[in-house]
Amino acid sequence: MKATALDPDTLTPAARRILDAGAELFYARGITAVGVDAVASASGVTKRTLYDRFGSKDVLVATYLLERDRRWRRLLLARLDEVTAPDERLLIPFHVLAEWSRGNPRGCAFINALAEIPDDVHPGFSVAAAEKQWLRELFTTLAREATFMRPENLGLQLMCLHEGALASSRLAGIGMVDAAIAAARTILAAADRR
């Protein structure tokens, strides 16, 4: 049976402490740099409890990524619900990225995880890849709703801009997101509509 992430909403109190400690450590130090001893110690449980609750470090990592994905999606979808203008809705993921980046100074946890998890059978790999696929599909859907021709191409272009800003924001700061928003506006202005 293939290991998968646990549902973060159904965790026991001890599992929640483990996940919270693991999430903080994995994001701050990196997945491969943090062992189960450090997570167990930071969460105040034994390694046995960690393994009883998660089965493996891989499942803990996948659950950490799944919880971040859910928080990101909730925030992004909530902001989308506040905006009705189709072209502006295409820019919301960039605006939310600027907001999200202020509290996440080490860049994208999913990009970081994909760089650290070389094996696509790792349960965390599929969670991180699914987040990127979801965002690309969201851009495509928003482009279609805004009546742009070739929404798949436009969605991919906007995704590339978003990911580039996200990957570079640690070095260039929020100014990178502002530059991506300006570039996105240029792309939208030049794109054909149905």
Automatic annotation (TrEMBL):
Record key words, sorted: DNA-binding
Ranges annotated as DNA-binding: 35-54
UniProt cross-references to InterPro entries, sorted A to Z: Homeodomain-like_sf, HTH-type_TetR-like_transc_reg, HTH_TetR, Tet_transcr_reg_TetR-rel_C_sf
Domain HTH tetR-type: 12-72
Signal peptide: none
UniProt name for this protein: TetR family transcriptional regulator
Top-level taxonomy: Bacteria, Bacillati, Actinomycetota, Actinomycetes, Micrococcales
